[in-house]
Heptaprenylglyceryl phosphate synthase
Amino acid sequence: MLYNRKAWKHVFKLDPAKSLTSDQIREVCQSGTDAIVVGGTDNVTLEGVINLLSQIRMYSIPCVLEVSTVDAITPGFDFYDIPIVLNSQEKKWVLDAQHQAIKQFGPMIDWSELTTEGYVILNPEAKAYQLTNCYLPDREDVIAYAQMAEQMFNLPILYLEYSGTYGDPELVRQVKQHLNKTQLVYGGGITTLEQAKEMAQYADTIVVGNSLYDNFAESIETVHVKK
Ligand code: 1GP
């Protein structure tokens, strides 16, 4: 199926290691959000991913697997997003993990389903920040990553990741000024519609994750950012 991902304003990210009831998953899928991303850092298993995919597939909504481990990849998603952690201090998370995965699975990959995301992880408390041994970039660093993503690497997505904490809208605004083709995705700490609106002024797409598990009703309201 063809989807215009650039038009996605709001997406929910579901963690295969956490649980929602089937009624809640129905509500998420029918909320009016543009897509569901399945992704997480800890305890992502093939069983968890398949279980979530089968529930999401009951509804007509685009579904993306954000790949964090090759052990939990399964067919059936519309897209497979491959993070490249630009501010990791280890080449493993920029190039080597992806290289190994392609070496192993290359012949099976439908390249039209694959999307590369340049990640800049900005919350030192985030699991992904620690796992990938990031450093905390300053404003100029982040802007330079945005320019590299668009001008050097032609990455379709730049993802400002504050997972677990609400980020700096002024930085998001400044980064957006340096991007024309590359889609700016913001994720992290959005718990209210007001926060969703603030970040959506600048980011092309906002991602809402954790708050679904903490305050479901308020989290669902964030979808009204699309109006
Ligand atoms: C996580 O960017 C997403 O990868 C969303 O962040 O879970 O903090 O909403 P939260």
